[in-house]
Amino acid sequence: MVDRKEKEDTTRCTEQMEVDTVNSPPHYTTGRIECIDAMEAMMEGSVVAPIVGNWWGNVFKYVWRWDKKGIPLEQLYKARFYLDKMIQWLEKEEKNEV
After folding, report:
1. Can you tell me the distance from the alpha carbon of 59 to that of 73, in angstroms, rounded to the nearest whole number?
2. Going by C-beta distance under 8 Å and a sequence separation of 6 or more, which residues neighbour residue 60?
3. CA 48 vs CA 10, 52, 61, 79, 88: distances in Å
4. At 24, phi and psi to the nearest 5?
5. What SS3 class is residue 4?
6. Contact status, residue 72 vs residue 90, Cβ threshold 8 Å
7. What is the DSSP letter of 95?
8. What Å distances lie between residue 32 and 4, 6, 49, 89, CA to CA?
9. Looking at the DSSP assignment, which residues form a beta bridge with residue 34?
């Protein structure tokens, strides 16, 4: 994990607002919390299949940024796409089809 606290002073300039779109994009930051940090905390200790974890992370990031990047409704459609994948997987898992 990248220690963002250590780099906090290097991503923004006080005279001219410079945004680090690679390490700290604004659409993934809400207040002092970055999406990736919240996602890591959410998934800590989880025992889901890796592909399900990937879909779960995608749902989380699209819901996190839905009103901050691109077309809001499109972001929510993307989240729903991955949520549907998770539901389908879990339904198959319940039937021992996975």
Report:
1. 14
2. 35, 38, 39, 42
3. 36, 6, 18, 18, 14
4. -155, 65
5. helix
6. no
7. T
8. 10, 14, 30, 34
9. 29
pLDDT tens for 7-65 read: 444 444 445 557 777 766 666 676 778 899 999 999 999 999 999 999 999 999 999 99
For 19-73, the DSSP string reads: --TTTS-GGGEETTEEHHHHHHHHHTT----HHHHHHHHHHHHHHHHTTTSS-HH
Residue type, 78: K
d(CA 37, CA 28): 10
Q: How far apart are CA 82 and CA 64, in angstroms?
A: 14
Report which of 39, 32, 11, 38 is spatially closest to residue 23, judged by C-alpha positions: 11
